[in-house]
Design goal:
By secondary structure, the protein is of the alpha/beta class. The protein has nine helices and eight strands. Strands 1-2-3-4-5-6-7-8 form an eight-stranded parallel beta sheet. The longest helix is centred in the middle third of the chain and has 21 residues. It is globular and about 50 Å long.
Length: 268
């Protein structure tokens, strides 16, 4: 059992103590566990550095957050010798400053990097957008912008795994009950997968959607199959837990999906 995507109270959206998360992982038989707290590059500096009209998480100085994340995860690695712990990070919006991203991933304390997009330029964080107010065209424009940003991220390739590719659907379909058609973006997604494969990286099977209203993994089986058909060989798997009770949830289902498609689960 492995869980390569989890958060602690170093992340702005979690209150979980690192020890509580690790003890729950041990209780559930997880032997490889990554702590991957949020570090958003579009919020690396102080609030004064940005022209951002949105409050959303109101979280800045993520440079300081990164250092706290490294110190906390390193301490947990030293404290718990009976479980393999990776010092990781979920690097959000690396495309906002790829030069800075290149410097961050050189940190020798880092074992594992998830790359994700949680927010687009001049838009609110996806978690705070009211999708019910969007016209169908506005929704399609948002998704087009999102998948193009994912493509830019994949061309960079400075990560270990691409996090929760269809994350936006958690809110669009799961929370707002808006039906979406991803077929217009399938070519862009395929090009993103080709970049991941070229850079010899992985994509993540994020199981958080299974316990949420969305009800599927991020990405779903259809897109995982597309990745496999294009030559993708390696996936990682993570619960995206932000509280102890969610640690390890959905992993069995995720592994079943991966094995059915012929994937190997990456263990770094």
């Amino acid at each position: 059992m492995i869980d390569l995507h989890t958060h602690t109270n170093v992340s702005v959206d979690s209150e979980a103590l690192p020890d509580e998360m690790i003890l729950k992982a041990k209780e559930r038989g997880i032997t490889l566990y990554a702590i991957t707290d949020h570090v958003e590059l579009n919020r690396w500096f102080s609030e004064a550095h940005y022209d951002n009209p949105y409050n959303d998480y109101d979280s800045y100085n993520n440079g300081e957050t990164f250092e706290r994340a490294m110190q906390s995860a390193t301490l947990m690695k030293e404290k718990y010798s009976d479980i393999k712990i990776l010092c990781g990070v979920e690097l959000g919006q690396a495309t906002s400053n790829l030069g800075l991203a290149d410097e961050i991933i050189k940190d020798k304390r880092l074992d594992f990097v998830i790359a994700s997009i949680h927010q687009l330029k001049n838009r609110e964080d996806f978690a705070f957008i009211d999708y019910k107010k969007f016209s169908d065209k506005e929704l399609q424009d948002l998704l087009n912008e999102y998948f193009n940003e994912i493509y830019t991220l994949c061309k960079w390739g400075g990560f270990d795994t691409l996090g929760h590719l269809t994350y936006t659907l958690r809110y669009i379909e799961g929370e707002s009950k808006r039906k979406t058609d991803l077929s217009p973006f399938r070519d862009t997604i395929a090009e993103s997968f080709r970049e991941v494969i070229k850079h010899q990286k992985a994509i993540e099977i994020n199981t958080s959607g299974l316990r949420q209203k969305y009800g599927k993994t991020f990405p779903d089986i259809d897109l995982l199959k597309l990745y496999k058909d294009l030559g993708g060989k390696v996936v990682t798997i993570g619960s995206d837990a932000h509280r102890p009770e969610d640690v390890g949830t959905g992993l069995t289902e995720g592994v079943t999906i991966a094995e059915a498609l012929g994937f190997k689960i990456a263990i770094k």
